[in-house]
């Protein structure tokens, strides 16, 4: 599933190919995405020029110059965007094309169709889908103080707390598990019973794992352009995620699996307390 680093890498990968370009044609092969493609979207897009791409949480924002609003693109469970060329035949599950004035085609692929592209009118921060989101994990608004203050008197386990979009956006299951390992915190520990000092370490660990994933994603940027198929999601060297039963890379103990907030959580019972 595309997580924040994949969406950010997508933004960086497609931006140089689409920003400032005029949309000359829109092809919707499959409008029934998680949110149906709006009927009036094609008319709105044709002749419009694409502004500077942005991202909020896992939403990609594609503003149109001279309009108060943006395309709001979500990649869902299996979506990807890449840049093809006019004349390049679509593959199965290539649902939406934005054809640009230089012959490039921004092409949306989504086998499971949990993603969507919708029109967001007006100010981005007032859209109900975005208004209640917490800060970006790589921004200054996210730190140990925030985690500490929001967690007081909360009994929920720290891992689902960290994955709550109102606390901080974009910390999915993989990155929560990896950050808790780096910070040495047991994912089952009650959020309200973790010290400020440990939350400082956890916030730093969240930044570290996400920044590393984005950096690694940068090495795959060429995959966003024609020919190579879908951009792969990053196969990082993971310490705990997906490694239950395997030895801890730090101490050699067997990694354990628990379920927290309906999500599988792997951790080291020796290194994480
Ligand atoms: Zn260990």
Task: Write up this protein.
The protein is α+β, with helices and mostly antiparallel strands and 273 residues long. It folds into 2 domains: 128 residues, MutM-like, N-terminal (N-terminal domain of MutM-like DNA repair proteins); 124 residues, Helicase, Ruva Protein, domain 3 (Orthogonal Bundle). Helices cover 26% and strands 20% of the residues. The chain contains 7 helices and 10 strands. A 4-stranded antiparallel sheet has the order 1-6-7-5, with helices on one face. The protein has a 4-stranded antiparallel sheet with strand order 2-3-4-8, covered by helices on one side. Strands 9-10 form a two-stranded antiparallel ribbon. Strand 9 and strand 10 form a beta hairpin. The longest helix has 23 residues. Zinc ion binds next to loops. Belongs to the FPG family. It comes from Halomonas organivorans. One of its GO terms (biological process) is base-excision repair.
């Amino acid at each position: 599933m595309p997580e924040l680093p994949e969406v950010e890498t997508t933004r960086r990968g497609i931006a140089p190919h689409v920003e400032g370009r005029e949309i000359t044609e829109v092809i919707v092969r499959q409008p029934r995405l998680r949110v149906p493609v709006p009927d009036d979207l094609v008319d709105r897009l044709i002749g419009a020029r694409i502004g500077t791409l942005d991202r909020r949480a896992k939403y990609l924002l594609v503003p149109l110059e001279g309009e108060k609003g943006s395309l709001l693109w979500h990649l869902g469970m299996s979506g990807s965007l890449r840049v093809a060329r006019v004349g390049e035949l679509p593959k199965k599950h290539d649902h939406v094309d934005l054809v640009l004035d230089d012959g490039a085609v921004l092409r949306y692929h989504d086998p499971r169709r949990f993603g969507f592209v919708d029109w967001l009118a007006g100010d981005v921060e007032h859209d109900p889908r975005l208004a209640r989101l917490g800060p970006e994990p790589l921004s200054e608004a996210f730190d140990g103080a925030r985690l500490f203050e929001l967690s007081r008197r909360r009994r929920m386990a720290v891992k689902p707390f960290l994955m709550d979009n109102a606390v901080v956006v974009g910390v999915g299951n993989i990155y929560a598990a990896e950050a808790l390992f780096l910070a040495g915190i047991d994912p089952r520990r009650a959020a309200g019973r973790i010290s400020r000092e440990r939350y400082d370490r956890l916030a730093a660990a969240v930044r570290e794992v996400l920044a590393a994933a984005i950096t690694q994603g940068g090495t795959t940027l060429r995959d966003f352009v024609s020919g190579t198929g879908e951009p792969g999601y990053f196969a990082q060297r993971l310490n705990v995620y997906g490694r239950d039963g395997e030895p801890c890379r730090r101490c050699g103990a067997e990694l354990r699996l628990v379920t927290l907030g309906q999500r599988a959580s792997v951790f080291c019972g020796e290194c994480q307390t």
